[in-house]
Give the backbone structure.
Amino acid sequence: MNLHHDPQPDARSDADTDAALSALLSEALAADPMPTGLQSRIEALTDPSFNGLLDEALAADPLPVGLESRILEAVLHTNAPALNTPTLNAPHERSVLARIGIGQRGWVGYAAAAVLALAAGGAFYFAGQGETPHNPVIADTLVQLGVELGALSDEVDALHSSEQTDTDALFVLTDISYDQTNNDDDGTFWGGSAGSFERELWNELASEDETGIELF
Amino acid sequence: MPQTPTSLLDQTLAQAAQGDQAAWATIVGMYSRRVFGLIFKQCKDSDLAEEIVQETFVKIVQKLIKTDDEPGGYQEQGKFEPWLFRIAMNNLRDEMRRRSRQARPMDMSPAAAAGASGSDSASGWAVAEQQVIKGGPSAPPAPFDAVDHAEKVDRLRAAIQTLSPADQEILHLRHTAQLSFAQIAETLDQPLGTVLARGHRALGKLKKLLNPAAEARTA
């Protein structure tokens, strides 16, 4: 009986179909692996066109958008132990979170709240202590600024000292001149005996002719 | 049925076992739609099907990757597809069992929703016939062979929904996952003869549902 070329199940009685199926099942059970063509011969008992309809009716549904990439991501996370850090994208972890009723967004929210609380606490602490936050960058900048201000102050002091010295020197000179100018009565302006000589010479020149005046 | 050439599949699996990401992308591309389709047909829940599919591939990776501590749990013997679909089906069963323990019964079929324990029961069979036959019992449906193609497909889908979960499982493995009967036997860990008989019985029930008048004539 060639069942493969005679697929007319509706024309058969149930007894004929059952007998044909039993024979094929016996053949299948007696052989390992499955004989070539046995499957198509068994399906032909029903009707090839009917099987075509079944293929169409039961065709796999299209994958949801992005599912293939999500599967691949999960696979690669599992595949690479070095990259297998805990992640909420991993399906097993996500399902665990879902089972305890905490979603991914919940964890992110808790983490953000914790960071904000720490930042606020730190700010209140420093404000209460009245101290400058010990930031190394800020500290270095302040130290450098202090050095520069110190150097500038030294330069100002040096300049002031120099000006003071010059002024003092000028005052000294002025004082000397003033003293000398205002103390010619005691002869100090011209000096001791030499002054006397010069004074005498001056008096002689002034009295004899105008040449001495021209000298001044 | 699109069967992946064994040599190509062997080569891809060998590369994947070494951690080749491109090989994994190939495997996911080849099988994700079939696995998702099978699980979605069984549970009718897209989110659950997505979770089951991801867990299935993660388990495949864990079993296939060879490490120093644990060598690969799968040795390629031309039975990768039955192995993959068996893991998927087991994942689904585990999840359904877990949900049933939490007193959240999940309706697997309209027959189950109607309170029928199986399509073989008198009440379940009656419900199935009422759901498949359009127009109700007082208006005999047009013969199945006489309707157009699109209506045939629609009526066939409705009829499949009325079958027992076990019968649906065989049909889904055969026509959605596109496994051969030999692979289905491997997947379900049942003898090939049992699977063939189950498949044939499911098809017979379907034909009887779709064309009761013709079946009555041949009986």
